[in-house]
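Contributing new records

If you add data, match the layout below exactly. Sequence lines come first and carry their own label; structure lines follow with theirs. Keep one chain per record. Anything else will be rejected by the validation script.
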Amino acid sequence: MTDDTAHRSVTVLRMAPGRFTVTNVRGGTLTVGRGDDGHFTPTELLLGAIGACTAIDVDILTSRRSQPDTYEVVVDAAKVRDEEGNRLSDIEVTFRVTFPAGAEGEGARAVLPGAVQRSHDRLCTVGRTVELGTPVTPRILSDR
């Protein structure tokens, strides 16, 4: 782990069978479930985190030139269950972005491919973590 300014943390609290609340250090919350109701599943949150992370990066780089008319990022993946366990494969991030006509819109369109590539290659912490395969270490703290 690095210094405290780089540390990230969330707390997951069980609310009911199959339902949990995730809370960040700033007090934001969201509910996670098994997929049998309207709440996001953990897998959907992972896909959403990949999409949101890269969407933010690209928006910062393109909106300096022009605000988009439309901005949508779709993240798709295949769920695999095999001898290696459950996981996602073939994760694909698709940007559907339009900019207004004119010089500013043209400027944003011109930097869009490079912004997407920069986010993928360097900027998006979530996508980079998934692609690099960072280990996850489980720990148990018991009341006994």
